[in-house]
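Bug report (template v2)

What were you trying to do?
Predict the complex of my protein with adenosine-5'-triphosphate.

What happened?
Run completed; filing so the output is reviewed.

Input:
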Amino acid sequence: MPNITLSGVAKSYGGGDYAVKNLDLTVPDGAFMCLLGPSGCGKTTTLRMIAGLEQPSAGTIAVGDRILDSVERGLYVPPEKRDMGLVFQNYALWPHLSVRENVEFGLRMRKVPAPERRARAAAALKMVHVDAAMERYPSQLSGGQQQRVALARMLAINPTVLLLDEPLSNLDARLRLEMRAELKRIHDESGATIVFVTHDQLEALTMATDIAVMNEGELQQLAAPMELYARPANRFVAEFVGSPPMAIVDVGAAPTGLAGSLLRFVESRAAGCAPAGIGIRPEALRLDPPPDAAWSEEALVEAVLPAGSSWTVRLRILDAELYALSYTPVEAEPGDTLTCWTDQMHLFGEGGDRISSWDRTKVGA
Ligand SMILES: Nc1ncnc2c1ncn2[C@@H]1O[C@H](COP(=O)(O)OP(=O)(O)OP(=O)(O)O)[C@@H](O)[C@H]1O
């Protein structure tokens, strides 16, 4: 299956507001692409346009040379002729069909002979761990089980493109983790192209080969997960990807407090650089002894949040609130003072774009 290409795609549901604005996006053949962004940013609309469930208001959608939508040329290919498997959050199973019959339904429509149908449905249900409930009806299943049946229904068809809209949202934490690994395995083994909508940055970071971050209908950045994390294009991406989030300290015209000391620190290393914001990721805010006392700041502990193998500490340094993520126990109480320091910073310009990143171990990154 060739690449899926969206060129200049926009969608308005009427009323002048655009849910998706001038989107150029290529989903490479075999990619696991996550569309990531906050609620209402246009992810679902984009996925529905790729599926053919919504028609764009402008632009072109193509798979290789085959045009699926072209507003300019008046072309539109309906969903059933796109050969794409869909699983949406509202996984509409047929209530009057058993789990097995639901999964077999798509195969029956494709005229797959009965014995093969049974075998493929059973294998797909086993993959999502609902094979024990094969003869039950959807109303007798939990929400999470229904969601997995919807996944199995799509997997049984073996489509070359899978379009998934928050398909793991109803699962508990453990099952979610299991299904993420399972989806990754399915992707690796099938070679299918997957487009996956999520607002959960961890889900995107753990599964995707490529992440398209969207905000207010616009693409903010398209990159591989680690690239996105290490070199966010702008403040929006920097703050959206990563948990706890990156703290960005604003540098005013006459910076005081932490902003002033960070700026002096930046200036001593990057002459002529005038950032409007300085970002520090929690894991880069260090609580161990600094290599240079001049780098350190006194921080007031506001909260310590232990999580078994890591400790998140909310700190206040003068006028700024920051998080530190430590993998060694933090024996501090709210109200205590800790010395912290950093050797990694992201510098953002006036408009919010990242102008550079500084990492003591990789100078010039
Ligand atoms: N059928 C519709 N009619 C009118 N407006 C719509 C329709 N569907 C979506 N919208 C609007 O388009 C914008 C984008 O919605 P969309 O569902 O694509 O976002 P999303 O990022 O998937 O959000 P969520 O994660 O909440 O599903 C929102 O402002 C939404 O209110």
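What did the reviewer find?
The mean pLDDT is 89. The longest helix spans residues 173-190.
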